[in-house]
C-alpha cells in the first residue's frame, strides 16, 4: 500500500513494494519561496487498490464502466458485496481526504469535537476564504478580516493543530483553487464542505460537496454513504476558439439541463473536444456543475492534466498516472443514463441570468433580451475571479482584452474588480504584469478569497433597492446573493466577456461584432482574447500561508468561551419520541425558488456560522411566504400576530409546538451549508415537505434528524393551507421505500390524508431515531 508523500511538492512516495520512489521536482524546489512545511504529508492514492476494486466490480457487473464509475466504485468499502444500481442503492465509500472552508469548518469541527475522537482518520484541511469582506482592496481587506475574525481563526487553527487538520491561513486563497494546486489528482476521491468542491474534476478527480456532518463521518474513519449516482455523458467535439471559453460549455449545459437536471448524477465529459480545453478550464466547467444539481463532474485524464501537474510540482504523480491511464478514462462502449453532444466549433459565448444560473443567452442576444424584459442595460460593476474563473489562463485572457482597451486610451466604464484564486495566482500574475494591466484599466485587486461571489462585499455604489446590473465570472447569481440587494440583476459569463462589458459599460455589447470608440474617436473591434495556459517561468508560490499540524496534538487545548457570540459548543439534539409526529404547525409554506441562500443567508451572517443559536436568527428570512407573498413576515397561530420567521419558530419551540416547512421544487439548491438544516432542527422543526429536494440539502436534513419528505402527488402542495395542522403517521414502522402519511387538519374542522415519500435507507432511519447522525455515531462508539 501507499505510504506518504508531500501533497504539492512530493518529497517522497513509496508505492507498493517500494519499487517506485517519487521525489520533489528540482525546478519547483528551486523556485519555491516558501517553507516546505506548507505541504502536508498525506496518503497518496493507491492505484493498485483502485485497479483491484475496479476489476472486482467490472467482473460482477460484466459491462464497460464510465470514468465516474471507475473512481467511485474504486473507492467502495466492500467492492465484493456492495449492491450497485445507479440511481437506487446507497454506496459505502472510503474517500481519500476532506477539505473544509472556514465558514463550514466551524460547525464541522464543533461536531468532530462533540464526537470525542482524538484525531482525524484521513488527511484533512481547513481553508480560510469565506470571512474576508471586499471593501477597498486586498491588503487592507485582509488585515481587517484578520482582526475582526481573530477568535474564529484562532479556533480553527487550534482545533486543526489538536485534531491533525492542516490549516491554510487567511490570504492563502479560495479552497477550490488550493485543492487544484495541491490535493486533486487523477483518480482521487475527495469530499469538501462546499458545493463547488467538484472543481477538482478538472484534474480527473471525483470531488463532491457535502455538509459538515458528512465530513465528520469521513474524518472519523466511518464509511461514507452516497446514493449510487447516475451518469450523464457530455460528448465534446470540435475545438474552443476565439471568444468562446470553457465557461461557455457549462453555461450552455446549464441552459440544457436547468438547475435540477443533474440532480443525483455525475456529469462526465468526454470526446475529442476535451483536448482543446486546458486543465483549469476543465475545472471551471466542473465547478459550475453544482448549478445544475450534479453530484459532481469529471474529465478524463489527458496531456493537459499532465502538464498542469508538472507545472505545480507534481510531475511524479503524472508519471504514475500515465502507467495507470486506462483507469482514468472511460471504457470503450460504456453507457450513460443521458447523453448530451456539444460541438465546440459551433458554441458561441454565453451569458446566463439574471437571478438563476440556468437562464442561458448567447452574448449576441443578451442586449435584445434585456430590452425586452426591462433589465437594466448599463453594467454598473464587472467582477472577475472567484473559485470558478481565477486561473492564470483566465487572468491572462482578461488582461489581453484590457491591454487592447488601454492601447486605445480607454478604461472601464463600470467599476471593475479582480479576485485572484490563490496566493500562488496572485504572486504569479503580479510578477508577470497581468495585475498591472488589470489595475491600469480600472480594476481593483481584491484579497485571495471568495469576496463578492458569496456576498462578502461592502458595496457602496448603489443603494439597496436600486435596480441595477452587474456582470461576473462567478458561478451563482441568486437574488441578492452578491450584494444583499434583491434589485441587483446579476449575469454570469467568462472573465473575458466580463472585462469587455466593463469596458463598454453595457450588456448590449458583443465583442465578436460590435465596435468600441477609442480616445481619439476612431472605431475599433477587440481581437479575440489570448492567455497562456500556464506561466512560462513556472508559478511563484508567494507567501507561506500553510500551518501543518503537529504529530501529536493531544496536549493542546481548544477553548470556546461561553460568552462568545461567534462560537458555541453543540448540545445533542433530542431523540425521536418513538411515536408519530402529531398536530404540528406549518411554520411557512414557501412559494417558488428556495435556495440555501433563502434558508440561511450568507454575507453578513457568515460571522455567526460557528454559533448555532445566533445564526438561527436568519432562518428562512429570504423565503417567500405563500400566504401573503411577503418575505420574513408570517402569522404566529398561537398569538394571531405577524412576526419574522425565526421569531415565530422560537415562540412555537418555547411553547412545545413542533412545526414543519412546506416547499416547492428543488428545495435547498445551491450551497452545501448544513446550517440550512441545523437551524430548523435547532428551532423545533421536525419535517420539511416539498415537491423535490436538492441532493446535498436532503442529506443534511437527514443528518440532523429532520424528515425530508416529498409529495407523492406534487399537486398535494396546493391542498395545504398555512393555518393547517399536520400529523405525520407511520413512523413506528418507518422503513426504506415505505411511504408515510400526512393528515391535514384544516381550520374548518375537515381532514384529509396525503401520501409522502422519502429516500431514507436503514442507516439513515437510525440517524432519525437517534436524533442525528452524530448522536448515532456516539451510540456506536
From TrEMBL:
Region listing for Disordered, in residue ranges: 530-558
Keywords: 4Fe-4S, Iron, Iron-sulfur, Lyase, Metal-binding, Mitochondrion, Transit peptide, Tricarboxylic acid cycle
Subcellular compartments: Mitochondrion
Enzyme class: lyase
The name this protein goes by in its record: Aconitate hydratase, mitochondrial
Pathway assigned in UniProt: Carbohydrate metabolism; tricarboxylic acid cycle; isocitrate from oxaloacetate: step 2/2
Biological process, per Gene Ontology: tricarboxylic acid cycle
Molecular-function annotations in GO: 4 iron, 4 sulfur cluster binding; aconitate hydratase activity; metal ion binding
The keyword Cell inner membrane is assigned to this record: no
DNA damage in keyword set: no
Location of the Aconitase A/isopropylmalate dehydratase small subunit swivel domain: 584-713
Residues forming coiled coils: none
Organism: Pogonophryne albipinna
InterPro entries: Acnase/IPM_dHydase_lsu_aba_1/3 (IPR015931), Acoase/IPM_deHydtase_lsu_aba (IPR001030), Aconitase/3IPM_dehydase_swvl (IPR015928), Aconitase/IPM_isomerase (IPR050926), Aconitase_4Fe-4S_BS (IPR018136), Aconitase_4Fe-4S_dom (IPR036008), Aconitase_dom2 (IPR015932), Aconitase_mito-like (IPR006248)
Cofactor list: [4Fe-4S] cluster
Reactions accelerated catalytically: citrate = D-threo-isocitrate
Cofactor, how bound (note): Binds 1 [4Fe-4S] cluster per subunit.
